[in-house]
Every structure is written in C-alpha cells, then in structure tokens.
Amino acid sequence: MDDIFGTILPPLRAIYHSAFFSMVEFILGIYTVVLLADIVLLFIQRGWVAGDMRDTIIGVNMPPELSTKKPQMRRKWDKITAGLKTDNESLWKVAIIEADNVIDDLIARMKYPGENMSERLDGINPGQIDNIEELRRAHEMRNRIIHDENFKLDKKQAEEIIGYYENFLRYFEVLE
After folding, report:
1. How many C-beta neighbours within 10 Å does residue 52 have?
2. How many Cα atoms sit within 13 Å of 65 on the Cβ side?
3. Residues near 32 by beta carbon (within 8 Å), at least 6 away in sequence
4. Which of 31, 51, 66, 87 could in theory staple to 172 by disulfide, Cβ–Cβ 3.0 to 4.6 A?
C-alpha cells in the first residue's frame, strides 16, 4: 500500500501546486462569485422584501392564510363547516356560500385576474392548482344556490361541495 501511495502522491502534489491548477482555482473562484451575484440580483429583481420573499420562493402570490396564518384559517373553516353538522338545509347552503367567499378571497389575493370567482377560475391553468375542476363545480353549485330560490340541496351534496373547497385548502396544507 505504501508503494502505491508513494508513487501516486508525489505527481498529484505536483499537479496541485502547479500554475495550471492555480489558474483553475482562480477561474472557479470568479465563477462562484458571479453565480452568487446572479442569485442576489434575481432576488432583487423579484422584489426582495418581507412579503414578496414568500412569492419568490413559492412562485405565486400567497395570502398569509395559506402560509403563516394557518391556525386562524383553520378556526374560520371550522365555523363554516359547523353548519353541515345540522339537519338544516339553509345552514348547508350558507356554509357553501361562505366557503366559496373564503376561497374566492384567497384566489383573488393570489392575484389571479378577473372580476369575480368564475373569471378568476377560468384564468387558472389546470397545472397551477390540482383541483381546479372541483372548484369550478363547487362554484357552479354556489351559483345555483344563489340564483335559484327553489334549489334543493341534500346533505350528501353539501358535504361533497364543501369537500371540494377543503381539497383546495389541503392542497396548500392549511387543513392537515
């Protein structure tokens, strides 16, 4: 073993201490400094302030309810879904309307374009939010509740629609 290391190490030391290797080290050092400067410039270009840093990392304008204020959002959601525990159809409808309003507010603050939730949902590509089709169905049901005073809703439908909204919140890990 000593013979192998004795014959291999001296040439490696010579290469390590050569002018060529020193030049490679110098070039790699410059490259590292340029890379770090590029990263800093990208952060600055994206708007590196406290609120925008979350957007830079995640890649979307994220309301605090989906990131730092999850417990408050959870409490609000529990109040909304409490109406499903009753046998009162009116409370089921109110729960769906309130859930739709909460999700609409979150999507609007994510800066998706549109005047209302329907337009905002149409502006979201299927790859951006996994359950976008569920949200569309849930919003259509909410519209039927609002616009058709004779609309009948059963508990299973109400739970399914609230489940669609919950899937959105689970996607952003608000509800665990």
Report:
1. 13
2. 19
3. none
4. 66
pLDDT digits (tens, 9 = 90+) for 19-37: 888 898 999 999 999 999 9
Task: Find out whether 74 and 175 touch, Cβ atoms under 8 Å.
Answer: yes
Which two structure tokens, joined as six digits, stand for 65?
A: 């309810």
In one-letter notation, the amino acid at residue 35 is L
Q: Please write the tens of the pLDDT for every residue from 139-172.
A: 999 999 999 888 898 899 999 999 999 998 888 7
